[in-house]
Design a protein that fits this description.
Layout lengths: L6 H6 L22 E2 L8 E3 L2 E2 L1 E2 L5 H7 L2 H17 L4 E2 L23 H16 L4 E7 L12 E3 L2 H8 L1 H10 L3 E4 L3 E2 L2 E2 L4 H11 L5 E3 L8 H7 L11 H11 L5 H18 L10 H18 L1 E5 L13 E4 L17 E2 L5 H9 L3 E4 L14 H12 L3 E7 L18 H11 L5 E6 L15 E4 L7 H9 L32 E3 L8 H6 L17 E8 L9 E9 L5 E10 L11 E10 L4 E8 L1 H4 L1 E3 L4 E3 L3 E10 L2 E10 L11 H21 L1
Parallel strand pairs: 1-5, 4-14, 5-6, 6-8, 7-9, 7-19, 8-11, 13-15, 13-16, 16-17, 17-18
Antiparallel strand pairs: 2-3, 9-10, 12-18, 20-21, 21-24, 22-23, 22-27, 25-26, 27-28
Bound molecules: alpha-D-glucopyranose.
Length: about 700
């Protein structure tokens, strides 16, 4: 097929037909394929900003909190089925950028602050999506961790930090799930736009990771089409009326661009079309499938719900006929997703208010408690507060739903603080003083600062932006029909100033220096032994769990494999789920390493009293660090420790393991060995300077 195409036809494949479609080559029988957002459901536009109804699944901030690859795979497969039925061949998701700062406006679209959690769930999403034939697009490569200045800022990241943190999740997804596409990011990485960064798009992505698919640009992010093509960017989106296709042809004709590079990209596009075309067969999803999707969205939202604190007030017992004050506008006007390209037109949505009323009837009294935030976000309405106090005083328990307003969490700009709106904070403090047990429900796509009211609340629940079924799911959890299965995929700090990126975000003069290096997320707080409001991995269940009999085998010198096994027991009186988290406290190394890093995890669902033996295998990369001097992943011989816990701060058992080097492997160069090289270099430098 490629050989039969003219240069013009090959070049025409390299940019879109319009906002969402690739170009066909009618003469050669090459059809167009359709790409659509977004990670949380199909946004199949029929006209600008108007899209077909689709199931709005929990956002990635919620899916990340499930710590459940199987569940994420099911959600992605459901989205894939809906995409195919709407004529979409490629979905533009998952987004797996690391939550470097909780301020990033797009954190609701990303999974976690940690590269292992992001990579494992991102790979599950790609597998699920592609099981339907619809292509997945892992995005945005790389270091796209803030929205402010995203089109022009350069993420200045040292190579070890890139490898160990900001590329690691992409590497896991590309090498274990083979996404059809990778999307390059808007920003520059160390000065070079991702869309034309050969180190990123060819050296790392293809030469090292063996990526076989196509690289698509983020929308309107190609600055030099010929340079981008050379770097490894195959498809420019959206279409630009063939203007840049002509530039490619001219460059080839002028001998400035090797036609083999055009062939390489054109072949990838032909292979993509060939692979995804069969996904769309005119399917019509019947109501039973859509009902299954709604049930799945509800189960996923419950499984993502993180019970941050609970003095026993939860779960509510419907039989106790408690009078419940339900306070907070978001209980009646659901917050289900963030703004921007991921926005889905939901097939329906019901509020927490409706879901609770369905079960508890007129035992529930609803009041808005705070004003709509569309107008002055700082406005406080005393009448609303007073009315809420009255209702709460007269109730057995109060559920207060607060969170970030729609315009606060969005693609395109970042938050300026971690605060809940002032009106909500005033309401929480006043209600905490009533003495009525308070259940605070937070709806946000990323961490917020929990104020002084936190200590007075009987329970605190992080419900995320959990999609169209968020209301029923929350009712399931509050009423005990579902166990709160979520664990934090990001740290909730005590205050913004404590966060890892605080002194270097948002960057200056066009450069965002990742000064904290590998100490992102929980690694930062652990390395500095800082108190946090709620740690990475934290989440309570309605039952309790015990970890026993941890066994850690000897490391296999060749593979670096270390078998790990432990027994998890549900020691409470009701079924529940838990996430066994395996951290490695590294052996001494010639570089600064975090006190511990998440390396594996497993979600288990156990009946009351049930025990389960959990077995995992760690391997070379779980003990290694990236040695930029040798350009390889190095193990340092010594004693590491494998610890298992229910969060990064609730570590239950640990066993030392000796890290051994592969036979014949050289240990990483020591500083003593590096020093002469550096001196020689500087000698050469001073020689050059003298000559100059
Ligand atoms: C947006 C986003 C990207 C999305 C694309 C198409 O700007 O950055 O994630 O898939 O453009 O809407």
């Amino acid at each position: 097929m490629l050989a039969s195409l003219t240069l013009e036809e090959k070049a025409s494949l390299l940019s879109g037909l319009d906002r969402w479609r690739t170009k066909p080559v009618e003469r050669a029988g090459v059809p167009s394929v359709w790409l659509s957002d977004g990670p949380h459901g199909v946004r199949r536009e029929t006209e600008p900003d108007v899209s077909l109804p689709a199931t709005a699944f929990p956002t990635s901030s919620a899916l990340g909190a499930t710590w459940d690859p199987e569940l994420v795979e099911q959600v992605a497969a459901a989205i894939g089925r809906e995409a195919a039925a709407q004529g979409v061949h490629v979905m533009l998701g998952p987004g797996i950028n690391i939550k470097r700062t909780p301020l990033c406006g797009r954190n609701f679209e990303y999974l976690a602050e940690d590269p292992v959690l992001s990579g494992v769930l991102g790979a599950a999403y790609v597998r699920g999506m592609q099981s339907t034939g619809v292509g997945a697009t892992v995005k945005h490569l790389a270091a796209n961790n803030q929205e402010n200045g995203r089109h022009w800022m350069s993420s200045e990241v040292d190579e070890r930090t890139l490898r160990e943190v900001y590329l690691a999740a992409f590497e896991r997804v590309v090498t274990t799930a083979a996404p059809r596409l990778v999307m390059s990011s808007y920003n520059r990485v160390n000065g070079v736009h991702s869309s034309q960064n050969p180190w990123l798009l060819t050296h790392v992505l293809r030469d090292e990771w063996g990526f076989q698919g196509a690289v698509v640009s983020d929308w309107i992010s190609v600055h030099d089409r010929v340079a981008a093509l050379r770097a490894g960017l195959d498809l420019e989106m959206p279409g630009v009326d063939g203007v840049t296709d002509a530039e490619v042809v001219v460059a080839v004709r002028a001998g400035e661009l090797d036609e083999a590079i055009v062939d390489r990209a054109a072949l990838r596009l032909l292979a993509l079309v060939d692979a995804v075309l069969p996904a769309v067969q005119g399917q019509v999803l019947d109501d039973s499938v859509l009902a299954d999707h709604r049930a799945l969205a509800r189960r996923a939202a419950a499984d993502a719900t993180v019970l941050l604190a609970n003095d026993g007030v939860l779960p509510l017992d419907p039989a106790a006929a408690q009078r419940i004050a339900l306070i907070g506008r978001f209980a009646d006007e659901p917050r289900i997703q963030g703004r921007g390209s991921a926005c889905v037109n939901p097939r329906g949505q019901s509020s927490i208010r409706e879901a609770l009323a369905a079960e508890l009837g007129d035992l529930v009294t609803y009041l808005p408690g705070y004003p709509a935030h569309d107008d002055d976000p700082a406005r406080i309405d005393e009448h609303l507060v007073d009315a809420a106090v009255g209702a709460v005083r007269g109730s057995d328990a109060a559920i207060v739903v607060v969170g970030l307003p729609d315009h606060v969490e969005s693609e395109g700009y970042d938050r300026t603080d971690l605060e809940l709106p002032a009106a909500q904070q005033v309401l929480l403090e006043v209600l905490a003083a009533t003495g009525t047990p308070l259940v605070v429900v937070l709806v946000s796509g990323s961490a917020v600062r929990l104020g002084e009211w936190h200590g007075a609340a009987s329970a605190v629940v992080q419900a995320w932006l959990a999609g169209q079924e968020a209301g029923p799911a929350l009712a399931d959890v509050l009423l005990g029909r579902a166990d709160p299965g979520g664990r934090l995929g990001e740290t909730f700090p005590l205050r913004l100033e404590d966060t890892p990126a605080h002194l270097s975000y948002p960057g200056e003069r066009g450069r965002a220096r990742y000064a904290e290096g590998v100490f992102v997320g929980h690694r930062w707080y652990d390395a500095r032994r800082m108190e946090v409001r709620h740690p990475f991995g934290h989440g309570l269940s309605y039952t309790t769990f015990d970890y026993t009999a941890l066994e850690v085998g000897a490391m296999d010198p060749e593979s670096g494999d270390v078998p790990v096994a432990l027994t998890v027991t549900n020691t409470g009186g009701r079924p529940g789920s838990d996430v066994v988290q395996v951290y490695v406290e590294p052996a001494a190394a010639p570089v600064a390493r975090p006190p511990r890093e998440l390396k594996a995890f497993r979600k288990v669902r156990l009946e009351a009293g049930e025990s389960r033996r959990v077995e995992l295998t760690l391997s070379h990369r779980d003990f290694a660090w990236y040695d930029v001097d040798s350009g390889s992943w190095a193990r340092s011989a010594g004693i590491a420790r494998v610890v298992v816990g229910r969060s990064s701060r609730d570590l239950r058992l640990g066993v030392d393991v000796e890290v051994v080097l592969p036979p014949g492997a050289a240990a990483p160069a020591t500083d003593a060995e590096l020093e002469p090289r550096a001196l020689a270099w500087s000698a050469g430098e001073s020689e050059r300077r003298r000559v100059r």
